Amino acid sequence: MGTVNLLDKLNDNGWDKINVKIGKWRILTVFLFGLGYFLFYQRDLDWAIYWLIWLVYAAMWLPLQGRHRGENPNAWTYFFLVGDVFFLLLSTYFEHDILNNYSTTLILPLFQYLLRYGRKVALQYVWVSVVAIVYICVAYYMVHPENHFVVVVVMFLIAYNEGMLIQENRDLRKQLFNLAIYDDLTGLYNFRFFSQAIEREISRSNRYGHPLTILLMDIDNFKKINDIYGHEKGNEVLKGLSETILESIRDSDYAARFGGEEFVLILPQTPPDEGFMVAERIRENISRHQFDFGNVTVSVGVATHHEASGEDLLKRADMAMYAAKKKGKNRVEIDPG
C-alpha cells in the first residue's frame, strides 16, 4: 500500500498539485522571457511565431504531466527534458551569441526536474544540456565549449548537492507521512486515517451514486491466544491476518486496524452481495492460515451505505459482527438495514 496508490484513492480530480504548479510556472516563465525579448530585442514575425510555439509547448506540461504522480518519470518527462534543451538550440536561429547571453536559462528547468523527479533525472537533463552546448559551440561559433564550462559545473553541482538535500527531505516527509496514517504493528491504515477516508468515500458515493460497503471483523478468542501463548504470539497473529487481508482485497480498497484485534475495510463501488463474498473469502483465507500453535478465525459484519454517516455505517457493521459472534463465530453476517 504505497503513497502513490493512497493519493490516487484520495484525490477526486486526479490532478497532481506539484506538476500543476510546475506547469503554471513554465508558462509564466516562457511568457515573461519571451515578452521581454520581443519588446527589447526581436520584434519580427519569425520571433513572434517562435515565441507562440514555445508558449504552447510550455503549456503542454499541464495536460501531459498534470495527472502524473510520484517520483518516477514517464515517457512525457523525457519528451520535455529533451524539448527544453531543443528550444535553446532553436534560439540560435534568432541570436548568434545565445549561449553567452542566455545559457543560464538552462538552470531553470533543472530545478523543476530535480524537485519533481530527483537527482537521476536532473543529471540526465544536465547531460543533454552539455551535448547541446557542445553542438552550439562547434556548429555556430567555431569556438571551444570550455568557455561555458562554469555553467556546466554549476548545473552538475546543483544536481548533486541539492539533489542529495531534496532526497533527504523527501525521505523524511515519507517517514512522517507513514507515521501519521499507518499502524506500526500491522502496516495497515490507522483509525485516524480511516475516519477521514470513510467520510470522503461516503461523499464520493453520494455524488456518483456508487454503492459503498464496509467490513468490520474481530479475531475470535484473541484474549485466550494472548493469555496462553503471550502477547508476542498475539502480535504475530495480528501481522499474519493483516497480510492475509491485504492479499484478499483490491488496490482501491482500504484496510485499517480499528483497534486491538478488530479490523475495518472500506470497499468502494461494492454492493452488499459482493461485500459478503469478499468477507467470506477473507474469512476462509484467514481460517486456512497456519500459525505454529494452530489457526485462528474471525467474525465479520457487513454493512452498506444508505445515505448515512460513517459513524452510523460503523455501528451497523458492528451490530452485524456481534450477530456473527452470537451465532457461533467464524462466520459473516450482513446488516439487514
Explain what the structure shows.
It contains 14 helices and five strands. The protein has 337 residues and is of the alpha+beta class. It has two domains: 3-181, no CATH class; 191-334, Reverse transcriptase/Diguanylate cyclase domain (Alpha-Beta Plaits), CATH 3.30.70. A five-stranded mixed beta sheet has the order 2-3-1-4-5, with helices on both faces. Helix 2 (17-40) runs antiparallel to helix 3, helix 7 packs parallel to helix 9 (149-181) and helix 11 crosses helix 12. The chain is elongated and about 85 Å long. It starts with a helix and ends with a strand. The mean pLDDT is 84.
Tell me the helix content. 55-70%
The main β sheet shows up as:
5 strands, mixed
Looking across the biggest beta sheet, what order are the strands in?
A: 2-3-1-4-5
Q: Mean pLDDT, rounded to whole units?
A: 84
Poorly predicted spans: none
Structural class: alpha+beta
Overall strand count: 5
Shape: elongated
Radius of gyration: 28 Å
Span between termini: 31 Å
| % residues in beta strands | 5-15%
Helical stretch count?
A: 14
Q: How do the helices and strands follow one another from N- to C-terminus?
A: HHHHHHHHHHEHHEEHEHE
Number of domains: 2
